[in-house]
Design goal:
The protein has three helices and four strands. The chain is α+β, with helices and mostly antiparallel strands and 125 residues long. It has a single domain (2-117), classed as Heat Shock Protein 90, CATH 3.30.565. It has a four-stranded antiparallel sheet. Strand 1 (40-47) and strand 2 form a beta hairpin. Helix 1 runs antiparallel to helix 2 (85-92). The model has no long low-confidence stretch (mean pLDDT 84).
Length: 125
């Protein structure tokens, strides 16, 4: 997200990019499997030390705020790839909101600039 460098810190830019990649990958992989047509819209807003990312899609209803946290493997042999995208989003976004309206999912992710809260981590609320 080089376009964002003059506007937001590198740590927040990284958090936004990671979270949007995870959210969009999940929508594409799981949200439209039974549909011929899947619409996804992404909107970013920056104001007062906060970036708000909204992702809206026409996929299958899914509320990531209610998803269970995955169990951690107790050994490398038990570990598997995947299932940690939502956990990553929870770790990097300052706040996550979800609503289902008019047959559309709407995920809102908020990212607070570290200077706005006096820390070096974008995920701190």
């Amino acid at each position: 997200m080089d376009w964002a460098e003059p506007l937001i810190s590198p740590s927040v830019s990284f958090a936004i990019q990671l979270c949007l990649e995870e959210a969009l990958a999940n929508i594409i992989m799981h949200g439209g499997m039974e549909r011929d047509h899947l619409e996804i819209a992404v909107e970013l807003e920056h104001a007062n030390g906060m970036v708000v990312a909204r992702v809206e899609d026409t996929g299958r209803e899914f509320d990531p705020t209610k998803a269970l946290r995955p169990a951690l493997a107790t050994s490398v042999a038990e570990a598997k790839v995947g299932d940690f995208g939502i956990a990553l989003i929870r770790g990097f976004a300052s706040r996550i909101e979800y609503e289902r309206r008019d047959s559309r999912n709407r995920l809102t992710l908020r990212f607070i600039e570290p200077t706005a809260i006096g820390t070096d981590s974008p995920g701190v609320c």
